Amino acid sequence: MRNPVWRQASLPVSRGGIGLRRSEELALPAFLASIHSVGDLVSLNVEGKARLTELPVPEFRNSQKAWDLPLCNVSLAALLEVYRDDEINKARLLAQSRPEAGIWLNALPSAHIGNLLDDDTLKISVGLRLGARICEPHNCTKCLKPVDGYAHHGLSCTFSAGRHPRHGGLNSIVCRAFVSAGIPAKLEPRGTSHTNERRPDGCTTFAWQRGMCLAWDVTCVDTVAASHIKSTSAIAGSAALQAEEKKSRFYSYLNGRYIFTPIAFETMGPWGPAAIAIIKELGKRLRSHSGEARSHVFLRQRLSIEIQRGNAVSVLGTVEKAEMFNELLFL
User: How much is the pTM?
Assistant: First the structure.
């Protein structure tokens, strides 16, 4: 494959791309869908043509998406084969093909609702998603370790500039969502343990379920960090799952007094199963309380965008001043 970056970019968001579709790929699905839409007027053996193109005949034959997705799956499989021996890119591509990884690309870019990404954040987010070279190699100003052209080091650097702002932003969004759903909540509550040394990130003030309050703890782990790359290059979202299991063990002392849920995200987009479940339930309560049918969608978008902003700050933090990064930036 001559240029896997551009090949991935041409895939739909649901398959790890950014939706810059190629007309020659859409032509056949669009043709077949339109033919079936007027099937009563046109006598044509579409099934025969589908066999010639090695396309399976979908159940809903008048849907362009139904014809298009099998082709996209073939392209995605080809990209994974290209990266078969490249653990970092394989982990990145598997992560970006998860449904929650592309949520930020579908958000309305409006400054009034906090969804507008600045130019540097957008360029870095797209570069990380597609595995494109982002900058010139340089040494990290925080730990002096080398940073390659893909800038992944900043995401897992011990002194990452974006780790704390990203954590605070994600935690704040979750807490505000509880309050907006009519469920009073507070951050870093005191009194959850006798020593107050291990406090969860937040807790509801009143009962959530079974007469107990809900406590949560947010974390965002790096998909391509050395400690996770073996598992994430095999199974998408495995780093988030491991982080949630670790959080559950760490806060096991809350069992019986609180309902505890970890909320884990990955830098490349996947969410842990507990995070997906609690955000879905919270979205339902938001919709019921506000009457806005898209409440769940908006909440997911804000969380996804906050991850991208944290990634960009982490990458930009590898140089002395953010303005200097423009001298190194490729995109």
Answer: 0.85
Distance CA 204, CA 213 (A): 6
**Which DSSP category does 205 fall into?**
S
Q: Which residues of 311-328 are buried (b: 16+ CB within 10 A; e: fewer)?
A: bbbbbbbbbeeeeebeeb
Q: Tell me what percent of the residues of the chain surpass a pLDDT of 70.
A: 87
Q: 105 phi and psi, to 5 degrees?
A: -75, -20
Beta-sheet strands, E only, within 69-197: 138-139, 146-147, 185-187
**pLDDT digit string, tens, across residues 189-233:** 876 665 556 789 999 999 999 899 999 999 999 999 999 999 999
What is residue 220's DSSP assignment? E
Say how far apart CA 87 and CA 233 lie, in whole Å. 5
Separation in Å, CA 52 to CA 28, 46, 47, 48, 57: 12, 10, 9, 6, 11
Phi, psi of 114 (to 5 degrees): 80, 20
